């Protein structure tokens, strides 16, 4: 079996490579510094790559994820998050290739959380472009769309995760601000990678929230992480997201309702506290 992973230079890719490596030949692509360099916004390059590899599985991680940059450059966001996905879908059209499109919790509105899958109403260009990418992916019948948020130690040189930022800041005694009004339901990247592998093995298709139970604020997440690791978290300021000027609008409560995924997959998802204890 051949597995193609896009976004090979991103945070999640090393975990996906590790999870799928026991199931076949894993190949990665990104614009540069990859086994198979490819500009996914160039249809000819995508068609050539997919024809050459003829993958049985594509895990589509490549995306433009900087929320503020996407807001200021909507055309670039559309090209990276929508056009690239459409090219992959065209390339595998008519095949049985299993396509995993990794989406985001940012497709949901700025309202009370525990969103179910039908409550889509993005408030920024990033969320809108990722949702349009979902719609492109859904045109391929054998596809899985996973709405996620992630934490965990980075294995990618030059990249760091939110949990890395908190851990390093506490360890170095740096002053940081913690949002008390921004809530989320992330999974450890290793957990998510294993879940996506299970989805492939079950041939699960459709659109799902795949996150942790009992989401919490980023303030509480950071403080619980510090407590678990035995780090001093006293040098912090508690703030609200509205205190930060000049940022793109972001939903504040992005806790996910994961009941539909658990029902369809038969997989019980972990609590966020359990994920913290893996960090």
TrEMBL record:
Superkingdom of origin organism: Bacteria
Organism name: Emcibacter nanhaiensis
Name of this chain's protein: SDR family oxidoreductase
PANTHER family, per the entry: NAD(P)-BINDING ROSSMANN-FOLD SUPERFAMILY PROTEIN (PTHR43242)
Every RmlD-like substrate binding domain range: 1-278
Entry-linked InterPro entries: NAD(P)-bd_dom_sf (IPR036291), RmlD-like-bd (IPR029903)
Pfam family, one: RmlD_sub_bind
């Amino acid at each position: 079996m051949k597995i193609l992973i896009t976004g090979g230079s991103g945070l999640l890719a090393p975990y996906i490579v590790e999870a799928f490596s026991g199931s076949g030949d894993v190949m990665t692509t990104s614009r540069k510094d990859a086994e198979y360099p490819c500009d996914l916004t160039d249809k000819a390059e995508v068609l050539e790559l997919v024809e050459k590899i003829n993958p049985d599985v594509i895990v589509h991680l490549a995306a433009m994820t900087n929320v503020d940059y996407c807001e200021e450059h909507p055309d670039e966001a559309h090209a990276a998050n929508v056009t690239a996905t459409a090219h992959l879908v065209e390339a595998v059209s008519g095949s049985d290739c299993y396509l995993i499109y990794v989406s985001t919790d940012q497709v949901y509105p700025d309202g009370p959380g525990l969103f179910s899958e039908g409550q889509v109403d993005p408030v920024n260009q990033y969320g809108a472009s990722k949702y349009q990418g979902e719609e492109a992916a859904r045109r391929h019948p054998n596809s899985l769309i996973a709405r996620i948020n992630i934490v965990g130690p980075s294995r990618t040189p030059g990249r760091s995760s939110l949990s890395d930022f908190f851990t390093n800041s506490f360890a170095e005694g740096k002053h940081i601000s913690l949002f008390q009004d921004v809530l989320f339901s992330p999974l450890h990247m290793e957990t998510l990678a294993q879940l996506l592998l299970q989805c492939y093995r079950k041939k699960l298709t459709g659109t799902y929230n795949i996150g942790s139970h009992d989401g919490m604020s980023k303030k509480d997440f950071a403080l619980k992480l510090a407590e678990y690791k035995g780090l001093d978290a006293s040098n912090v300021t508690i703030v609200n997201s509205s205190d930060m000027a000049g940022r793109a609008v972001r939903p504040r409560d992005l806790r996910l309702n994961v009941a539909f995924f658990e029902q369809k997959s038969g997989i019980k998802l972990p609590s966020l506290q359990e994920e913290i204890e893996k960090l």
